[in-house]
Amino acid sequence: MQLFILHSCKTNRLLQSLRFKHLYAFSHLWFKTTYECADESFLRPPMDSIPQPFKFLLQGASGIWEQDDKLSQRIIEILLRSLEDGLDHKKYYESEFKNGHGYLRIINYTPLKCLDDEVEGLGMHTDMSCVTIVYQDQIGGLQVKSREGKWMDINPCEETLVVNIGDMLQAWSNEKFRSSEHRVILKKPVNRFSLAFFWCFEDEKVIFAPDEVVGEGYARI
Ligand SMILES: O=C(O)CCC(=O)C(=O)O
Ligand SMILES: [Fe+2]
């Protein structure tokens, strides 16, 4: 499979409900301003409640934005190691992933005044990224679809981030990794806040699964 990327990851507008309000920050330098300039309907938990690894990204102490190697490199390294025994993950990180970039979506799901039933805050989708690192507050509502097609709750857990595999990594790994189908269901009449950091290949990269990753005897998809 070859994928020519015209745009970085975008969630289709049609997937977003009226409850979904988002802001973007394209670099850590913009994050603070974006976060602070949100209008009053944009309720966000205090920075103190956001887990340290994510704050690390946001504050630009290290992380993906500065092409430093911390969290994104660790995640990609772990994923590459799990692909094939003996795969030279350092070589592939350097040649394929090093020039990637990330952008952050800051999301506020505003509650209905009276919520009798569940409401889709964000419809089923896959992310176009290589990996997405998600922080959700304590309200919950993130769900992922299992192989059997059942929706599973990803319950919030203190100091825990969720990592989604996205379409770009699915293509690069010749579908050895599966881009996860997920959605957000609003179940409580309260504000929900989340941060999603999409880490993508550089723009206009032609994604081509290396032979070693495809593996002998396997067809390139
Ligand atoms: O709000 C969430 O927990 C997930 C958001 C998400 O999946 C997205 O922005 O692509
Ligand atoms: Fe998503």
UniProtKB/TrEMBL annotation:
Signal peptide: none
Protein name: Fe2OG dioxygenase domain-containing protein
Family recorded in the similarity comment: Belongs to the iron/ascorbate-dependent oxidoreductase family.
InterPro entries reported in the protein's UniProt record: IPNS-like_FE2OG_OXY, IPNS-like_sf, Iron_ascorbate_oxido_reductase, Oxoglu/Fe-dep_dioxygenase_dom
Keywords linked to the UniProt accession: Iron, Metal-binding, Oxidoreductase
Residues in Fe2OG dioxygenase domain copies: 100-202
Pfam families: 2OG-FeII_Oxy
GO MF term list: metal ion binding; oxidoreductase activity
Annotated SUPFAM superfamilies: Clavaminate synthase-like
PANTHER family cross-referenced by the UniProt entry: 2-OXOGLUTARATE (2OG) AND FE(II)-DEPENDENT OXYGENASE SUPERFAMILY PROTEIN-RELATED
